[in-house]
Amino acid sequence: MKTKIIKNKKGFSLLETIIYIAIFSMIITTIVSFGTNMTTSRLNNQNILEVNDQGRNVMKTITQTLRNGSQINSPTTSNTSSSLSLVTSLPATSPTVFSESGGVLYVTEGTGSQIALTNNKVIVSNLLFSNFSRPNTPNIIKISFTLTSSGASGGSGGTYSFTFNSSAQIRK
Predict the structure, then answer these.
(1) Residue 154 falls in which region: left (phi positive, over 0), alpha (psi -120 to 50) or beta
(2) CA separation for the pair 24, 9 (Å, rounded)
(3) pLDDT above 90 covers what percent of the chain?
């Protein structure tokens, strides 16, 4: 009598293994790519938020101080300057000076030390104050500066830059 040999098919063939590895590799590559894109997008959004938040806060501080000032020392009428000097109603804070140094925007009140209005996550450039006043008119100052993200939040999120413009006048 002849005995039948039954082949026991356990496991995968080489071709099946290669196909499964290829499918698994494509899935892993898609997941890693998606995660990388999400991280880059998050960093870009953080840079945009940081620039916009600091720009709004700086502009608000400068315009409020200017409106509450009593006289503009610099820039003089029809001139521009990279710093703004104001006489304020309080002797302790007079003069108040806004200026940029090393990519940071500072305010100095009276004889006090410089106080940074921006942090190391942004770089200030193109700071310009233009005095559009005319004789016997309120002092009108145009304020312009550019903030650029410094990439301190990881660097791979790219950079974002925005130019802020506003104007204000001394209330009399």
Answers:
(1) left
(2) 23
(3) 55
